[in-house]
Amino acid sequence: MKTLFWVQVLVISLLCYLGVNTISAADWSVSTQSKEMVYAITENDTDNAFSQFCYRSSKSCVYLLGLQIACESGQLYPVLINSDIGSQVMMIRCFDQIRTGHYRYAFTDFDGMDAIVRKASKLGLAFPMEGDQFKVIRFSLNGADSAITRMKNNAFKFLPSKASVQSEEDL
Q1: How many Å apart are CA 165 and CA 171, to the nearest integer?
Q2: How large is the greatest C-alpha to C-alpha distance in the chain, in angstroms?
Q3: Is 161 a residue whose pLDDT tops 60?
Q4: Hey, which end of the chain has fewer CB within 10 Å, N or C?
Q5: CA–CA distance, 30 with 124 (Å, rounded to integer)
Q6: Mind listing the pLDDT tens digit for each residue in 79-103?
Q7: What domains lie within the chain, and their CATH numbers?
Q8: CA dist., res. 85 & res. 62, Å (int)
Q9: How many alpha carbons fall within 13 Å on the CB side of residue 102?
Q10: How many CA atoms are closer than 13 Å to the CA of 142, on its beta-carbon side?
């Protein structure tokens, strides 16, 4: 946890030095000044991240996870979504291992995830593991709707609302 904190401090310091503004909205942070992308992100106390990234060149957005759960690049995995507004099963696609050692996943149903994120206050994700085990990861959605709205209003006034993620090129 301490390592992630110092990585965050370093990244935020670097972004500020480069002129990238980071704005907080409750449990979420927003960055809108990058030439390539904008994002709204939250992290939990177990060093996992949940975010919405929007890419300027493709004018598309995607919900991403940065998890400490290994996966095979390109493979689809089921995840049980539980929130204070309901439950459902969604699919996520594994892309790669990122510099932090986490694995990057993208939700394949942007609209379904967006409906949950914008209305719920808590998000629980249950991942089937080997045997009969599950890994459960929770995120606060406190401030998510405000953060995402602020991100899009500042950077993408004419951005389409969704993106379908089928391959890494879609990111």
Answers
A1: 7
A2: 48
A3: no
A4: N
A5: 22
A6: 999 999 999 999 999 999 998 899 9
A7: 2-170 (2.60.40.1880)
A8: 21
A9: 14
A10: 6
